[in-house]
Design goal:
about 210 residues, Jelly Rolls, eight-stranded mixed β-sheet, 3 helices, 13 strands
């Protein structure tokens, strides 16, 4: 496990640490003192990546829904059907993955309802560094460049900006995190699309 750590005065009670690990259980460490984000650095299936990268933009699923976590996979299948996403094992991998990530978030935060989005975009969706107005937000970029993050106050220093890899899973604390410890880590959509790809971004929010 890698810890990307920012030293601050204890009295500030700001969480800025980022934990990075290859075990999915790393996401549960989001509740640890001082941790602002946890990133699951996982291996992406080459066949799935080639499939998702090769789909025409109009066949990428677009989804906005608030549902019990156990219905996330079915919601993705429905969105794929509406978009005309080709049937096959890769589509099942996508829906199963979203379902598994919704379950992981629900277990981590002890919730039953989640807000699930699949965003399809060719431009920068949210170019400014920010903290989301939610308890926590899970992000996974299935296609295109991943989310960027930086400690608050260092937004203008490119050397301090880090990026989540495509396919990796990041869980960020939000403005309404569950305890009094404030978050001092910002994130945004990639500043620019260097490869020109349409992005497919999964967003799962905790709904209290």
């Amino acid at each position: 496990m890698t810890v990307y750590q920012e030293k601050i005065a204890p009295r500030q009670r700001l969480a800025r640490d980022v934990l990075i690990g290859r075990d999915p259980d790393i996401l549960s460490d989001i509740a640890s003192p001082g941790v602002a984000a946890a990133i699951w650095s996982r291996n992406c299936d080459p066949g799935f990546q080639a499939w998702i990268d090769g789909l025409p933009e109009e066949q990428l699923p677009d989804l906005r829904t608030v549902i019990p976590f156990h219905l996330a996979s079915s919601a993705v299948l429905s969105a794929c059907q509406q978009a005309g996403t080709p049937h096959g094992p890769e589509l099942d991998m996508l829906s199963d993955d979203v379902g598994a990530l919704a379950l992981m978030l629900a277990k981590t935060l002890d919730i039953r309802q989640v807000r699930v989005r699949l965003d399809v975009a060719t431009g920068v969706m949210c170019p400014k560094f920010h903290i989301d107005n939610v308890p926590a937000r899970l992000l996974c970029t299935y296609r295109g460049a991943g989310t960027e993050y930086v400690p608050a106050g260092f937004e203008m220093e490119p050397s301090r900006i880090r990026q989540v890899n495509t396919g990796h899973v990041a869980l960020f604390r939000g403005q309404t995190w569950l305890d009094e410890e404030k978050t001092g880590l910002l994130h945004r959509s990639p500043g620019r699309e260097s490869d020109g790809k349409t992005r497919l971004l999964l967003v799962i929010d905790a709904v209290s």
